[in-house]
User: Which sequence fits this backbone?
């Protein structure tokens, strides 16, 4: 038996084939473009996701004989994106992505509406789905009138795989249309957002069967027509499944395009005033909370494009040992910010530049700015009584030992890395596929990976980084730019 986990990310799709015990057999990745037609806009063509999936599956099918015994598929996806379909399931416009901030005014208006935070458990952030539809209603009314279904990116792949409009709880919790405590669509929230229940996909838990593979795909892929498609998950819930973060006290820090600090919670206790996100977990009857910054490795990648040096080259120039904060400072708000500011208009900047400032100084300032942004989320989570003895670190930014030492020191929390192998959202998605097919207890499937040695905070530098963080927090207020 084999199972397929799909991670539909912002810049590309990762496909992971595992065996019945969740051990990796093989993996592949496909990239696709991202469009920014106007400042603050971020869009993708859903056809590119399908092309990436078809290409990745073809490689796995022809490379690994075990693919022929495929039993289940799980999809993890970038959250919040608005994929708009007409009555024939034709895509009406490019998908508006999670890091698109055009609907900041609509988000603020919805957030001020009575009962919205109470029902959704969250602030209505500009990146969430409901304000995107309000923007479309105002600025693209001809398209709005033709909308028959609104699907998140992962749900769009579920449609391609099953032929049905179906989504899971964890992904749907980021729309501002879901009653997150009751785990069902809220008619009141839908009405406030000028939407209807019939425009929403059918809801299932992430571990449930959402459907079976379409016969056309089963024939093309050379697999059984009884392949089960799991409900799936939003990318961070899937990553939590991949590292076994299911219970109170478990969590991770993710250094990806965005920066995420996630805490699994045993119950539902929203705290929207902290700008922490409270979402359904992919596991039935569980939730998680997270703080999100919009530009983590994206900040370093931006600087990489500006300088022409690869990110690894930039961070390698800092050496292995953490040093005191520099006089050059960086605000990592290239796309606005969520936790704790909920500010779509603020933008990034450097301060403290001089004629003697070097590229290494600016790189160090970027790493420090991102670490301080994660500290913002850490403090917001602590306000909800979340606590961590240690954090598992995942994502591309973990390749920098300097950055990990910096984050451990700024958060005053030990950091652990998975020792080897797969452990991210693609593995979590595959594990959901196993659960949907086998009905196995999730605690038997979603176990933590073997971990490497702990990266400890540099105690001697903690005080200086605390002071630098206080300055970072204070500077936010006077470094904000005018609204877009």
Assistant:
């Amino acid at each position: 038996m084999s199972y397929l986990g799909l991670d539909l990310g912002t810049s590309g799709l990762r496909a992971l084939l595992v065996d019945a015990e969740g051990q990796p057999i093989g993996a592949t990745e496909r990239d696709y473009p991202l469009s920014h037609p106007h400042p603050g806009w971020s869009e993708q063509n859903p056809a590119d996701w399908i092309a990436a999936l078809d290409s990745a599956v073809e490689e796995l099918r022809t490379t690994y004989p075990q693919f022929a015994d495929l039993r289940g598929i799980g999809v993890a996806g970038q959250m919040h994106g608005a994929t708009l379909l007409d009555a024939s399931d034709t895509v009406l416009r490019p998908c508006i992505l999670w890091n698109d901030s055009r609907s900041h005014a609509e988000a603020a208006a919805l957030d001020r509406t009575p009962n919205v935070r109470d029902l959704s458990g969250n602030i209505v952030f500009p990146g969430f789905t409901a304000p995107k539809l309000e923007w479309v209603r105002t600025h693209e009314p001809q398209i709005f009138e033709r909308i028959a279904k609104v699907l998140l990116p992962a749900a769009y792949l579920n449609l391609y795989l099953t032929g049905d409009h179906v989504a899971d709880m964890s992904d749907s919790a980021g729309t501002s249309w879901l009653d997150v405590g009751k785990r069902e669509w809220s008619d009141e929230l839908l009405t406030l957002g000028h939407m209807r229940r019939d425009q929403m996909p059918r809801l299932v838990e992430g571990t449930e069967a959402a459907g079976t593979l379409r016969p056309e795909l089963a024939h093309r892929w050379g697999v059984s027509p009884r392949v089960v498609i799991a409900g799936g998950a939003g990318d961070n819930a899937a990553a939590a499944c991949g590292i076994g973060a299911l219970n109170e006290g478990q969590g991770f820090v993710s250094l990806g395009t965005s920066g995420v600090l996630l805490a699994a919670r045993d119950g539902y206790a929203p705290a929207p005033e902290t700008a922490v996100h409270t979402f359904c977990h992919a596991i039935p009857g569980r939730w998680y909370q997270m703080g999100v910054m919009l530009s983590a490795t994206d900040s370093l990648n931006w600087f990489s494009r500006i300088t022409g040096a690869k990110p690894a080259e930039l961070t390698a120039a800092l050496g292995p040992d953490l040093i005191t904060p520099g006089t050059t400072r960086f605000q990592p708000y290239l796309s606005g910010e969520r936790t704790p500011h909920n500010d779509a208009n603020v933008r990034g900047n450097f301060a403290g530049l001089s004629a003697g400032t070097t590229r290494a100084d600016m790189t160090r300032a970027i790493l420090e700015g991102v670490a301080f942004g994660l500290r913002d989320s850490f403090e917001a989570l602590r306000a909800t009584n979340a606590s961590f003895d240690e954090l598992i670190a995942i994502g591309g930014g973990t390749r920098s030992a300097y950055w990990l030492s910096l984050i451990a020191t700024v958060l005053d929390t030990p950091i652990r890395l998975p020792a080897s192998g797969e452990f991210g959202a693609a593995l979590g998605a595959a594990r959901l596929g196993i659960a949907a097919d086998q009905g196995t207890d999730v605690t038997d499937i979603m176990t933590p990976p073997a971990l490497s040695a702990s990266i400890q905070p540099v105690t001697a530098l903690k005080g200086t980084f605390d002071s630098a963080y206080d300055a970072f927090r204070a500077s936010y207020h006077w470094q904000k730019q005018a609204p877009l």
Summary: The longest strand covers residues 12-19. The longest helix spans residues 359-382. The domain at 2-236 is CATH 3.30.420.40 (Nucleotidyltransferase; domain 5).
